[in-house]
Structures are given as structure tokens and as C-alpha cells.
Amino acid sequence: SQGGNSFHFYNKEMNIHGHDYLNVVSDLRKAIVEEQFVLMYQPKINIKQNRVTGAEALIRWEHPQKGLIFPDNFIPQAEKSGLIVEIGEWALEQACKQCKQWLNEGLGELTVAVNVSSKQLAKKDFYAKVKSTLSRHKLDGEYLELEMTESLLIDNSDELKLTLRNLHQLGVHFSIDDFGTGYSNLGYLKEFDIEYLKIDRSFISDLACNQKNKTLVKAIIQMAKGLELENVAEGVEDEQTVKILKDLNCEIGQGYYWSKPIKVDEFESFVTSFNAY
Ligand code: C2E
Ligand code: CA
Ligand code: CA
Ligand code: CA
């Protein structure tokens, strides 16, 4: 569109450098002040009982000019700039408030899962922030799940251990997100009080036709059971996959087969009709 003989290559990486990056960061600052973010909720299903057990809160940015922006297009910039700390606090606040509302409205004993970035966890006051958020909404820690990637736990410093132990004492649960995609030595699995392994979508999406992935998923589930962890399969898109996961004794599933991430009112209707049977 610049005309002439000039070529421009564009990729996602370029977004986190240079001019574009600076624009996004200044827009993000404004977005925080003006609360342009919204949380969508994707149901988590207990596969055997066929019931909704909770939701993962997934952030969206309602940009006044650019419209709805998905997290992959702004979370990396938010992390690089450190703004993820404030954005993450906002997400935690909203999710806890919402979860308490579900309990009050009698929607059920639903848990809410919030994604946590390494920048947030590295803050000295992370524990205090979570604790005060829970108490502000009179929400028992049992209802909150924090999702973090493996890379976050490779740093197994005493500080991190203490933070997680303290949170665990409030009843908060931890999930390893995107399990199987990191380069970790798995040693952290016994170092921390983790409840859930979320098997990455890349292993689940073609489970029905990919024998190698089936072997891997089976092994992950076995290992998790041995460590007394529960399994969550993400990216479940069809019935055949559900059947395989059920046979492999995978406890929880999440994916487009049941529902995409949806607005809170849609989520409430989903739970009401799904759990009615
Ligand atoms: P994630 O935590 O791995 O979230 C799962 C992503 O997979 C979501 O994308 C979800 O919409 C998508 N997904 C769920 N089921 C299916 C399926 O069956 N098939 C396919 N193809 N995709 C499925 P989304 O919402 O765009 O989020 C992308 C990532 O952004 C998340 O990956 C998470 O890492 C990050 N993110 C989202 N919200 C937050 C937040 O509040 N804080 C932080 N730090 N990161 C967030
Ligand atoms: Ca997640
Ligand atoms: Ca994930
Ligand atoms: Ca992911």
C-alpha cells in the first residue's frame, strides 16, 4: 500500500519492537485507565460426570478504534512493558467478583481460573494482592485457580516456593498451562503444590487420528495420576476426542466442542442448561 517498488514484511514479532510497540504500549496504558478490557469465560467440563465445574477467564481488549483484540496480539507487549501486572490484577479482580456472584446467584460451586504471567508472580506483593482480592469479595480461595506455564516454575527459588505455599494455604489451586510444550525437567512437579496439568492443545486437537499424540497423552495422564494431579485437556473439538479422553480417565476437558470463550451472560445460560441434566 506504500506504492512504488517498496516491500514490507510483517510478522507478529515486529509488533513487540519499534514504533508499533510504542503505540501499543501507550494504547494499553489508556486501556487500563479507561477499563477497555473484558473477560470471556470458557467452561471447564468434568468429562465423566458431564458437568460444568468452572470457567477459565480469558481477556479481550475492546479497542475504541480497532475493535475486539485477542490476547495473543497484546499480552506479549503487555509483558514486555510490565503493564501485564496491572492488567493481570484487573483480570483477577473481575474474575473473583464474578465467581462470588455465581455462588450468590446459586449457579453452582463453580471455580474460576485466571492466567498469571511471570511478571506478576515475581512481584513481592503477589500473595498479598491475591489475598486481599479474595477477602474483598469474600471468596474462599478454593474457588480460585491460577494457571501458569511451566517456564514460570523453572525458577524454583525459595521466594517463589513460599509465595505458592502461602497461596495454597488459602485454598488456591494451581494449574500448569500448556503442559508438554516447555523444556523443563519436570522436577518442579514435586517441588510445588500443583493440582492440575493442562495438557496442551497441540496434543489434544488431533488425538483421534494421531497415534503418537495418543501415546503421549496416555503417558502424561498416567504420570499425572501417579503424582496425584488431575488432568485437564484443552482444545477439545470433537466427540471422538471426548470419548478417547474418557477412556484414558482424563478428568476435565475444555474446548470448542463444548463452548468457545463466551460473555458472562452466555456462560450463565450455558451452565444452567448443561448442568440441568
Ligand atoms: P491459553 O491460556 O492457553 O488459553 C487457551 C486459548 O485457546 C484461548 O485463546 C482459547 O480461546 C483457545 N481455545 C480454547 N478451546 C479451543 C479449541 O477447542 N480449539 C482451539 N483452536 N482453540 C481453543 P485466547 O482466549 O485467544 O487466549 C490466548 C492466550 O492469551 C491464553 O492461552 C493465555 O496464555 C493468554 N491470556 C488470556 N487471558 C489472559 C490474562 O488474563 N492474563 C494473562 N497473563 N494471559 C492471558
Ligand atoms: Ca490458560
Ligand atoms: Ca493453555
Ligand atoms: Ca497457550
From TrEMBL:
Tell me a Gene Ontology molecular-function term this record carries: cyclic-guanylate-specific phosphodiesterase activity
Species for this entry: Psychrosphaera saromensis
UniProt-recorded name of the protein: cyclic-guanylate-specific phosphodiesterase
Please verify whether the record's keywords include ATP-binding: no
Q: Where does the record place the EAL domain?
A: 21-275
Q: Which residues form a coiled coil?
A: none
Q: Write the span of the intact protein that is present.
A: 268 to 544 of 546
What EC numbers are recorded for this enzyme?
Answer: 3.1.4.52
Q: Which domain of life is it from?
A: Bacteria
Alphabetical UniProt keywords: c-di-GMP, Membrane, Transmembrane, Transmembrane helix
